[in-house]
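re: ur question from earlier - yeah i can do the single chain one, its not a big deal. heres the input i used so u can compare w yours
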Amino acid sequence: MIHRVARLPRRLLFRPHLALLLFGSLSLISGWLWFGTGLFLGRGSGLTVWACSFVATVIAALTLLRRRLQLGGLLVLVVATVVVPTLALIALRWNTGAPILMHDGAYQTEEAIRLLLGGLDPYGVDYTTTSMRLWHWYVNTPIDPSLYHYVYPPAVFLLPLPAYALAHSVGVPFDVRLVDLLVAVVAAVAIIKLPWRWEWRYLVLAALFLDPFFYLAQGRNDILFLAPIVLGVLAWERDRPMLAALAFGAAAAFKPFAVFLLPLLALLVWRRSRAERWSTARQLSVLAGLILPGLLTIAPFFLWNPGAYWADTVSFVSGSDPHRYPIQGYGFSEILLLLKIIPSPGAYFPFAILQALGTLPVFALGIRRVVGRPTLATVLWWATATLAVVLFFSRFVNDNYLAVVLFLAILAGATRRGARRIGQHVDRDVFTRPAAAA
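and the output i got, formated as tokens:
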């Protein structure tokens, strides 16, 4: 009985109809609050944007009920829910000059690009001297600690830099969310091309693009590291371990959340190399692919100003910097704050100790499981579990962090269900699962 109850959430979640009901409903509610009410885009334009999403939801539901063109119906909904609102907000910005509903991280990334093109290090810069101080979320409020730091790895502003430079040279407007949209298209195509049954691809698509807590239209950059993870899964499933390693390494270069994948993937590669008798050169090249993207993008900026880079990306988020990130969100830190164990959101607390105590046993168990069952699904699951523990005991847990954990858990489950054999060699069976088993 207990085993059946434990399996119930997985059984419910891994159903396309319920996934559409859950994520589609959340998207409609979120879209109504942001756009349908007319608060930001105006009554007419906002209602039109929301109506597109509503009609597309009906289309997606009908394709599921008729069991025809299910993925096509979902893609129509993704366009209506993500692409249309994003383009509407970009058009509003270009028409008014105001980045309404644009995420502060996206806006700051554009500032970081300008600083770099001007010969300045984006890390360690006081962003209160830039247009960030005049951004609508920061006007008439105390100076936000985020204005003293740029928390994202260099890959976040290096990726859109060529597009920004090109737009600036020809005198056309630029919005970093255009690059995010292109990355989203790549992620969607990669999911469609996964060699799985349509049900599992449907779930992954819905979890990535219909979860409103990703705030894709507003420019939160989670798609920049989730897209490479999807590409890594695709490459691994198609028996391209080198490309998979580079993709997973790129994910870690875009966001530290993916760092927990790397050691488990290295263990998986080592187990596979022994089973398939890879040459030493091939084994080392695949392992190098896991760290090469991060090394090439992070090392130049760390060497440029080690103190500034560490302060922005580590000290600020851990709380050891004087301009520390305030405690907030849905984790253990908020519980301590509510219980008055921590006196104020700006106070220091050694969360790193709690993170280490909670993470090490989970990660050690993950290593054991990967050794015992060396599959990509096992790696994804235990990296996600480790990330969840780290986030729970961190200084802050934003709502998009919860969306990331949920998506990675769904991706791990879909990978376990959908993975197919990539070869006939008997030693490879431990790395894949037949499609028929799904």
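Confidence is low (pLDDT under 50) at residues 421-438. not sure if urs matches, ping me
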